[in-house]
Every structure is written in structure tokens, then in C-alpha cells.
Backbone:
């Protein structure tokens, strides 16, 4: 699925995010690297970010990877934090996205212990109607090893 060149850019990026959060990305390092390289070379990822809760959440999480003094990412963190809190107050997201935003604002992904985060995300992701059952089965099989 990651190697599908015909897949929509956002669908592929979301799949990579799910694989990473489910704690199984180490099985697909090469495929993810190639997919991300193709994505950054061929697409325009700009848009109206302040209305895109999912996009803001991704930028919010990425802003925590900044080095000291990286003003652009510091501004991105403040911008997205403000708008994500506003989206929660206005109810501009579905319940699953609402849960993820609350979780991220509580403590960003990169400050969490990866194995505990994967367990939380597996449970949260399994509740989704559009969850990829193949990924969930893969997680279940690998958890027993």
C-alpha cells in the first residue's frame, strides 16, 4: 500500500502516519523513505491550514522536533496550538480527531514513550470505521511475537 504510486498524496501520508503510530514502521523503513521522497518531490502541500484540523495537528506535532532558536517552528507551534484549541471549542472535528487533538495537546507525540503510545493508538485506531483492518491484524500478529 505504501508503494502504490497511484494513491492520493494525503492518503499515503495518512497511511505512513498510521504505520508509525501503530509501532510497526521499523518493518517498512525503506518503503516509507521512498514514499516520502516521492511525495515531497511531486506535490504541493500548501493550503488553508487554519481550517484543516488534521493538517494543523500534523504541523503541531512536527513543531516539537525543532532545535532551539528555530523561529519558524516556534511560530508554527504557537499558531497550531491556538487554532487546535479553537477547533476543539467550536467542535470542528469528528470524535476520533477530537480525541487525537486532545491527546496531542495534553502531551505531544515526540514526548511520549513509543510503545505506550502505540498501545493507545491501536485502541483508538481500532474504533474508527475507516480503520485499515489489515494493519490492525498485522499489529496483532506482531504483538504475539
Residues:
Amino acid at each position: 500500500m505504501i508503494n502504490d504510486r497511484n494513491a492520493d498524496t494525503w492518503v499515503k501520508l495518512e497511511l505512513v502516519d498510521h504505520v508509525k503510530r501503530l509501532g510497526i514502521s521499523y518493518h517498512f523503513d525503506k518503503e516509507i523513505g521512498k514514499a516520502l521522497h516521492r511525495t515531497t518531490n511531486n506535490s504541493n502541500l500548501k493550503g488553508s491550514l487554519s481550517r484543516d484540523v488534521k493538517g494543523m495537528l500534523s504541523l503541531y506535532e512536527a513543531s516539537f522536533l525543532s532545535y532551539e532558536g528555530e523561529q519558524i517552528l516556534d511560530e508554527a507551534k504557537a499558531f497550531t496550538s491556538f487554532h487546535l484549541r479553537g477547533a476543539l471549542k467550536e467542535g470542528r472535528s469528528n470524535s476520533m480527531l477530537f480525541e487525537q487533538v486532545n491527546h496531542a495537546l495534553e502531551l505531544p507525540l515526540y514526548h511520549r514513550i513509543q510503545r505506550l503510545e502505540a498501545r493507545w493508538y491501536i485502541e483508538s485506531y481500532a474504533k474508527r470505521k475507516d480503520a485499515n483492518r489489515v494493519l490492525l491484524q498485522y499489529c496483532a500478529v506482531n504483538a504475539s511475537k
Observations:
- The chain has two domains: 6-110, 113-144.
- The chain has seven helices and no strands.
- Helices lie at 9-21, 29-42, 53-63, 71-90, 95-106, 114-126, 133-143.
- The CA atoms of residues 24 and 139 lie 7 Å apart.
